Amino acid sequence: MDYKLKILTEQDLPIIATLCEEASDYMVLATGETNPKKEALDLLTSFPPQKRLEDKTLYGIFDAHNNLIGVLDLIRNYPTTKAWMIGLLLLSPTARGQQIGEQVHAQIVTQIKSEGGTEIRLGILKNNPRAQEFWQRLGYTFQEEKIGTVAGVLMPVYAFKLSL
Predict the structure, then answer these.
(1) Which ranges of 115-152 does DSSP label H, i.e. alpha helix?
(2) For residue range 107-142, what is the model confidence (pLDDT) as tens digits?
(3) Which of 8, 29, 40, 66 could form a disulfide with 12 if both were Cys (CB 3.0 to 4.6 A apart)?
(4) Nearest 5 degrees, angle CA 130-CA 131-CA 132?
(5) d(CA 32, CA 25)
(6) CATH code at position 112
């Protein structure tokens, strides 16, 4: 499937909220409930305490008809210099299983390497084995179990890392 990446802004809040509603299965898995408007705003504005909004990029993944089918939340130089953090890769249910996640990941890896990044980190919900399988297939390795925050809720996550 053809796709393109575009940086999302506050003007895109309505379509991000629509995506969050379509992909509500993730938030229900994470927190037991869903609030698409709040989730959309969080995706645009949430970042780690030590970082600034300028360090964050929220990419929209658009199909050939310019419909938003996914998002990728990326933080540069976190948790250390030259490390990048994927906060979330979320695809609409209709876009899953079509290699889009793998293609977007390959494109982002190329970008991160070109900007001097040496590793990518991410957290995976402990209760999301499909995500664990996906990221392990891409070469990520388990680092530790920790408590992470998803939509303001503390929960157990697995920290994974990919060395570039």
Answers:
(1) 129-137
(2) 999 999 999 999 999 999 999 999 999 999 999 999
(3) 8
(4) 90
(5) 9
(6) 3.40.630.30
